[in-house]
Amino acid sequence: MDFQPAIASYLEKTGFPSFSPKAFLFDMDGVLYDSMPFHAKAWKEAFAHVGVQFSEYDVYLNEGRTGKTTVNEAFTAQFRREATDDEIQQIYADKAEIFMSISRTNPMPFAKEVLTALQAAGKKIVLVTGSGQKSLISRLNESYPGVFSPENMVTSFDVKYGKPNPEPYLMALQKAGVRPNEAVVIENAPLGVQAGVGAEIFTIALNTGILNDDVLSSAGANVVLPSMQTLYDHLSSLLR
Ligand code: CA
Question: Pick from 45, 76, 102: which residue ends a domain?
Fold first, then answer.
């Protein structure tokens, strides 16, 4: 794995004279936690309860959208109308309940090793998530002790637009005090990739789910890797 061709094409596209990563900006669901299978099952089941066909693949494609937008897109596709507020609330509450009952905290294999290696190399780390659970920080501290604090997190509480808008990644750059060509985004979803690329940051997509690689390339990912372990195995060549 050689990052050089991808870096060369990143520089050509953005017009930056150089690339020297000082900060790594991590998405959470599907990157730091292997949580997407639970979200996919929960959405599929909640939609089925109201007669809407929504596959697990659809859930992966739409990862990062708000609950409201997700429900409306599904309704528009199938019923040619938007959902009512009551329908949205009902389906989202149902989804949340199913998710709570089936999900477990599954740190992504090799995420801890990657974070530790980056810390050892003196790199800054920022979490950028559309999630807004209050228990976020305690869970992160349990899974990844000594890595995350409110100062290096951008959550749904901080942003106005959220992904795929570049806003959350632009905020992360500010928190880290670096320019776009001094950062790397680690994402797993097409909308997250769009946000990273929109902020002109070198964006690595980890295809940890069921999407076809070309969905992530088409979203603009500079590199698509199959797993966190692959990133770990080749991290030194990125830090050179
Ligand atoms: Ca994600």
Answer: 102
